[in-house]
Amino acid sequence: MEKKMAVYECRQLHCLALKIARDSNVFVGTAMIDVYAKSNMIDDSCRVFYHLPEKSSVTWSSMVSGYVQNDLHEEALVLILKSQQMDLEWTKFTLSAALSACTALAATIEGTQLHSVVVRTGFDLDIFVVAALTDLYAKCGHIKEAWHVFSVMEEKNIVMWNVMIAGFSRHARCLETMILFEKMKNMDISPNEVTYVSVLSACSHAGLVECGRYYFKLMTEDDKLQPNVLHYSCMVDVLGRSGFIDEAWELIENMPFAPTASIWGSLLSSCRTHGNLQLAKVAAEHLFEIEPENAGNHVLLSNLYAARKQWEEVAVMRKHLKDNGVKKEKGKSWIEVRDRVYVFVVGEYNHPMISEIYLKLEDIRKEMKKLAYKTRSDCDHHDVAEEQKEELLGQHSEKLAFAFGLISLPPGVSIRINKNIRVCGDCHTFLKLASKISGREIIVRDVKRFHHFCGGLCSCKDFW
Description:
By secondary structure, this protein is α+β, with helices and mostly antiparallel strands. Among the domains are: 156-227, no CATH class; 240-327, Serine Threonine Protein Phosphatase 5, Tetratricopeptide repeat (Alpha Horseshoe); 332-458, no CATH class. The chain has helices at residues 2-19, 26-38, 42-51, 57-69, 73-85, 92-105, 108-120, 127-139, 143-152, 158-170, 174-186, 193-206, 209-221, 229-241, 245-253, 261-274, 277-290, 295-307, 311-323, 354-369, 386-393, 397-408, 425-438, and strands at 332-337, 340-345, 415-419, 442-445, 450-454, 457-458. The radius of gyration is 25 Å and the shape is globular.
């Protein structure tokens, strides 16, 4: 209601500005750009912006921030480029918004260029700009660079601590997450709700159930914080991921509020991992009701049926998807090579180097067989012969992106891959062995977390 009132009042003021010929005033225009953007009316923001005859640095900053707030990150970067061609002065707000856009797009090269701007303009001492820069490096897979930026900043607020703790958690650096948490407390900086989400998430991904229980209790008893839905979701994941499905279910039943999609999703994922079909059905039914358009929930339950070779149930799930017009998201991976992004989809055959890529994959598989590698056909959930399952798994997008990186990048250079969905079990095993055979560090950012493959091991310790 408040939002609708703000939009209504903004339109009234906009009409008044037009009536009294003040719509060209830079201060009035900048304020309208900001209000429209915050009300998710970005088209109106654009109209005001492009009709202003004069624009200040604050005007440009408001438009860039508006694009970022509305998830139009590419448009934000294009506007940043235009502003620099006009030699406009950087502000901390413009830089923070630009860094956020680079983070969302995993645009490491552009982000690194912005880092040099941060230093050159003296904003490397601004705590909010530095927090955005730390977040950029952490979310783009450069955790060492994130730590360096964080470490050299003498003054740190809770936002900076949270960004770095979340970075370690996302990269499966559970020990570093807990050490930094304790260091923050020792410096008399009280953790907040955001801090505990990262710490509990780290415990979940590392399979540290007792640590998870400890921090969940510490949150209420020591820091007097009331757990919210995100903390309960993390705890369900902590318990369920390690096989404590019944305890996770008990926690859900005794929560002080109704479970959300995030909580049911954590339970469903754990049930799939540990083969608990009964509770998986319960979780899935709630998810189908809360978010019927999310194909991932249907796929998780379908995979559980497939693992039990209940193909009739799999067919029912697929029919349900089709009848309701829900489309399964197709797996795709992308890799940056020489300032250009290359995208691969599962079963890719359109890339100009695709023949060379498949030949490279075949060579790698031959080497892997010497290490007793066997395709995990259980990771493919089609009712087809084993040979066909192997062929389908061999066409997964992250494998294609890896082979392309191996061909295209100089020897010894880390291979960085982004993926839009979760890495499957077979690709995870494949990439572990590939890192050992190739002698390369392989960093994969999927929808859940980062995986650092090196020397035949993964940073997630097979908890993901």
